[in-house]
Specification:
Length: about 90
């Protein structure tokens, strides 16, 4: 089972949508609260190569990007493949 981490911020509709997509897949994931100005947000920026938006999603330390990226992976069927392979 792959290790999935998602950095989110309270009140972010994109974060809610990304969490819904992951939850619909029935996979376990670690949601990390990362509001502006926190160490968690800085970690997210560093891990993603500089992306400052949330959510930021990682699969086994590989950045998948944000919500739009996740929605694209879902629409093409690639997300299921990635979740199976890890």
């Amino acid at each position: 089972m792959p290790n999935i981490e998602i950095y989110t911020q309270p009140g972010c509709p994109y974060c809610v949508r990304a969490v819904q997509i992951l939850a619909s897949k029935g996979v376990k994931f670690n949601e990390i609260n990362a509001p502006h100005g926190t160490q968690e947000r800085l970690d997210s920026i560093s891990r993603s190569g500089g992306a400052r938006t949330v959510p930021q999603i990682f699969l086994d330390d590989r950045s998948l990007g944000g919500c739009t990226d996740l929605m694209h992976l879902e629409s093409t069927g690639e997300l299921d493949r990635l979740l199976t392979l890890g």
